[in-house]
## 1
Amino acid sequence: STMFNVNLGTLVDKPVTPVVPTIKTKAHTKDGDQTIQKVEVSKTTPLYDKIMTTNAIKGDQMVATLHRVVTDKDGKVTESKVIRTLNFTVDDETVKAQEKQIESTVDTTKDADVPETSTVTYIWTEDLFDEGKDTKKDEPKAKHDDLKDQDQTLTVEKVKKPVTPPSSTTPSSSKPTTPSTTPTLTLKVSL
């Protein structure tokens, strides 16, 4: 009988560095830019966010949140509220591409009602959770939640409200006017 001696190499017990997922996003409007223009303002303005991840795995839970933030002329936040939350589970397609585009519609018709010196922005934030975690209580394994990040931000174009000029008493016709024979009523007000 023949016996062989085979070297199977050396096993080194090294700690495995955990793979940490990351999230980046690029918010955009229907035409691909980051400005909600006057022509895009409607009761159902579509707002998009392209979410790019690393190391997201099938079954992970993603929570995307859309914020409406109003700032004054000095950049101070005067209003900030969550207007939409979208939840989805990472699927095979998202794992393969490591990206997903989400969409929501928002009523942007009231954005002109803010003071003229204020700015309205819509900002997407994202949290990634392991499968089975409670997205309301547990800490996400990755987040992208900087409300000042321009890549996550859509800005509403400032639209000046039309100013109605005071009505003029000057006749608009170019015909010469003849003095009226109708008596003129003059009111006297005593203070």
## 2
Amino acid sequence: QLLKTDGSKNLGWASDSGTWVKLSQTTNGTAVNDITFDSLDTSTYRAFKFIGGMQPETDAVQLRFRFRVGGSSLTTSKYDYGWMQTYPDNSHTAISANDQDHVWMFGDGGNQSREGYTFEMTIFPHVDGHASQIGNLVKWEGFRVDDGHAFRATNGAAFYDVDDTYVNGFILYPSSGRFDFHNHTLYGIKA
């Protein structure tokens, strides 16, 4: 229940309509090759929010992302992305690419204690009835700690540049090896 006002400064209890709905949660997850979500209900949820972190098994690997449809990853070289990464000397790096077969989300994450990737990500799929390129985008912000234990804040965005592709899943995976540890929650966000 929520405490809300009736507009005349009178407080009362009301039911929470549940705009954000927890769909999945993993705590203390152990070794997996990837983190995959399939069959996401895009008729009920207009967007999805992933919050979590993972530590790769292999040192100094990239974190990658792909959309999925019907249980299969979209591997056509139609991903466009860009991201910024900050350094502790007040400088930054910009990375961007077009027509790739995956999204490169973070630079080299380390595999030691307190290293890896921690971030939140919003996924906005294309849905039937919307203009062709409104959707199939992902944006993220967070940080990675590399193999030298250096902190790097990162934010980025990407989209899958193909008309009328109705994604209903996604996969996160390291560029080499697997994830040793992972903790994450996925929320569906109602329109």
